[in-house]
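Internal tracking record. Fields below are filled automatically when a chain is submitted to the structure queue. Please do not edit lines marked as system-generated. If the sequence contains nonstandard residues, flag them in the REMARKS field before resubmitting.
Queue: standard
Priority: normal
Entity type: single polypeptide chain
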Amino acid sequence: MKVLVTGATGHVGRHVVTQLAEAGHEVRAMTRTPATATFPAGVEVVRGDLLAPESVPVDGVERMYLFPEPRTATDVVALAKAAGVTRIVTLSSGAVTGGFDTDFQLPVEQAVEASGLEYTHIRPGDFASNTERLWGPMVRAERVVRYAQPDAPSLAIHDGDIAAVAVAALTEDGHTGRWYDLTGPELLTRREQVAAIGAALGEEVPFEEVSADEARAILERQGGWAAENAGFLLGFEDYSAGGTSFDDVDWSSALVPLPTVPEVLGRPARTYAQWARDNVDAFR
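SYSTEM-GENERATED OUTPUT FOLLOWS
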């Protein structure tokens, strides 16, 4: 069985590739920059871009892990079906379960379901890796995190656990037609997450509280993903691009650890502290 992994160098995709390869499966890893990709021996690395469906290498593939690109999802899925792909596992978002008609994940889920192929949707909430994209530049440069709302809670999930659920859905029976909402195993505040990063580094990393406006300005200066998502992450926008207030959310009832990871994998979900130890080099 050959599995195509799109978005193979992403935070989750690279784990999907590695876990499939380590389990002995034949893997084709698709990336826009194959020359810089580093994967286990035996992985077939190919160039492809979801924005150019004709470049997606679906020939000879039986199953596919699909990164969410809504603009071309219908065409990519149609090409996969015509090539003989029988099962697609999509990386989606917990926002879909929450009832948000997102422009990002929902169209991809709809395209896959309409194809008639076997499918599973993976819907993680807060990615632990997002904290590296938010705070990594500050920690690396100054060993400090300047951010808003230090007591805001998170159920951040280890990217490797997201990937492990996706791999199970790709390679095992019993997951077809299901969607899996994923969270980490414990509720931590942002201040506690920063403390876990410091513990992994073996150094103190203070959390310096700033206003939401100041935090947004900091992220915008950083650029990249942090700047693009600053408005949503800090409560200036919701999934419909409208206004929302952090204080209007009843976090005590909205954030509850879900048992999905242990139910699917037969082991506990990994903690944020474990994620920080596994990714400590990103903060050095």
